[in-house]
Amino acid sequence: MSDRRDEAVVVRAAGALDLDSAPVLRKELHHIEGSPEVRVVIVDLEAVTFCDSIGMSELVLALHRGEAQGRRFMLAGVPAALTRLLAVTALDRAFDIHPTLDDALRAATAS
């Protein structure tokens, strides 16, 4: 579910990001957060088909934990429905969002 790419660790989410799957994402993100050498976390959402409030909460909590640890937290490949949800909730201003994983990786190495 995650792999190291240059300056970043990429976490790939797929399918529904909801009550059933959010604990899997949380576990993976906690594992990464325990690695002080990781400076950038990118969550690739390209394959996510649905995200409810539980999934959104998990992303927000991960963003806050990353900020507290001085770690950059990015989203990549955000599907249209989730993009709308982020815009409606104004969370699109809180997250560092990139259209594709490659764009996020370029931004991670540029900083």
TrEMBL record:
Q: Where is the signal peptide?
A: none
**InterPro entries in the record, alphabetically?**
Anti-sigma_ant (IPR003658), STAS_dom (IPR002645), STAS_dom_sf (IPR036513)
The residues covered by the STAS domain are 1-108
Q: Which Pfam families match?
A: STAS
Family indicated by similarity: Belongs to the anti-sigma-factor antagonist family.
**NCBIfam families listed in its UniProt record:** ant_ant_sig
Q: What is this protein called?
A: Anti-sigma factor antagonist
Organism placement in taxonomy: Bacteria, Bacillati, Actinomycetota, Actinomycetes, Streptosporangiales
